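The instructor's notes for this session suggest beginning with a concrete chain rather than abstract definitions. Hand out the sequence below and ask the class to guess, before any prediction is shown, which regions might be ordered.
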Amino acid sequence: MLCSFRLALCASAVMISLSAQAQVINDPLIAAAARDSLLQQADAIRQQIAKNAGRFTVSAPRTATARHVVRGYYFTSGILPTNSSGSPAKSSGTVFKAGQLAWKHVTKTYLSGATNERYTGYANNGLVVLRERRHNGSVTWLNLNATTPLEGQKAKAVSTGTYTCEGYVRWGRKLYLAPRQQVEQ
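After discussion, reveal the predicted structure:
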């Protein structure tokens, strides 16, 4: 009897905390700003990963295949990225493991002409920081989990969030309902 009372008490506490956190912000301007901030942060992280990745491989057994997999790898520990003048850039102490996966991009093309893309970005320690899905070039789902800054990224720019094509945006701890984007035809 006491155990079931404790269980009911814990369940009610969890429901109250979830209902307090699940307040959806419906203001279109604030929600659109949160969506744009999330997409901008995801693009910045994608560019940072691509900047640190030195080489890539393409996995397509035939050129006319419907599925292409491209993988990017971090620089080996002996090679550093170069800056605009062509001289080696200074390292901030992060050593990349030789052959460590930096990103993976899978593209599927269907007979109807539709294209689905999946992108996964990895941090220097191997954790997934960015997952993105696109259909015909438009983002349908995005998950940003950059809890630790990447090489060369400011610590205050680190955040988490999720975007779905239905318009739901979770940016930090807040949940927004953004207006749907109209696609021109």
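Then share the key points. The helical segments are 2-21, 28-52. The beta strands are 24-25, 53-59, 67-74, 101-109, 115-122, 128-135, 138-145, 160-164, 168-171, 174-177.
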